[in-house]
User: Which sequence fits this backbone?
C-alpha cells in the first residue's frame, strides 16, 4: 500500500514538473520534444507560438552537420526565408546545457536575435553554452522520443545552396507539428 502511494506521488510530481510536449513529424519520421518552460519561459512560449500558428509546417532542416547539430524552422523547401515574430531575449544563462538531444535557439551574433530557427544537438556542444563573455545559445528542451529520426538526418547527403552550406540535398521537411495535449 505504501509503495503504491509513493509511486502515485512520484508520477504526480513528475507530471507537474514536466513541461509542454511537442510532436514533430517529418518526412523521415516523428520525434517528440519536451520543453522546459520553468527554466526557459520566454523561449518556450516563443517556440509554442510558431507551433500553434502552423508556420513550422512545411519548413525544413536547412543545415545539418553530422557530429554537431541539425538546424531548422527558418526556411521553406525553396530556401525562402520564412517570416518571423520579434526577436526574443537570450535565456542561455538558465543552467540548461547544449548536450546531446537538446533543442536550442539559433541566433545571429546579436545574443538577443533568436526568432524562429532552432537546432538539435548531436553531441555535447559545451562551446555553445553561456560562460563568461560567451553569450551562449539558449537550450529550452530535449528530444525525449525519436532521436534516431534526428540522427538519420545526419546521414543524408548535403550540398551548398547559394551562400549556405550543409543543406540536405533532399529536403527534410516538417510535415506537421503540434503540442501534445
Assistant:
Amino acid at each position: 500500500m505504501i509503495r503504491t502511494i509513493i509511486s502515485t506521488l512520484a508520477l504526480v510530481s513528475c507530471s507537474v514538473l514536466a513541461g509542454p510536449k511537442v510532436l514533430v513529424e517529418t518526412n523521415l519520421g516523428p520525434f517528440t520534444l519536451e520543453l522546459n518552460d520553468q527554466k526557459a519561459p520566454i523561449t518556450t512560449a516563443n517556440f509554442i507560438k510558431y507551433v500553434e500558428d502552423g508556420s513550422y509546417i512545411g519548413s525544413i532542416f536547412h543545415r545539418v552537420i553530422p557530429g554537431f547539430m541539425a538546424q531548422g524552422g527558418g526556411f521553406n523547401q525553396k530556401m525562402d526565408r520564412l517570416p518571423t515574430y520579434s526577436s526574443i531575449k537570450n535565456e542561455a544563462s538558465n543552467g540548461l546545457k547544449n548536450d546531446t538531444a537538446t533543442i536550442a535557439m539559433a541566433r545571429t551574433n546579436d545574443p538577443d536575435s533568436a526568432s524562429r530557427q532552432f537546432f538539435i544537438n548531436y553531441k555535447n556542444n559545451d562551446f555553445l553554452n553561456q560562460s563568461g563573455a560567451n553569450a551562449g545559445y539558449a537550450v529550452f528542451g530535449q528530444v525525449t522520443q525519436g532521436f534516431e529520426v534526428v540522427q538519420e538526418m545526419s546521414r543524408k547527403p548535403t550540398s551548398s545552396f547559394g551562400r549556405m552550406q550543409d543543406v540536405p540535398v533532399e529536403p527534410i521537411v516538417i510535415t506537421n507539428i503540434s503540442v501534445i495535449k
Notes: The beta strands are 21-26, 29-35, 61-65, 69-72, 102-105, 118-121, 139-145, 158-161, 164-168, 174-180.
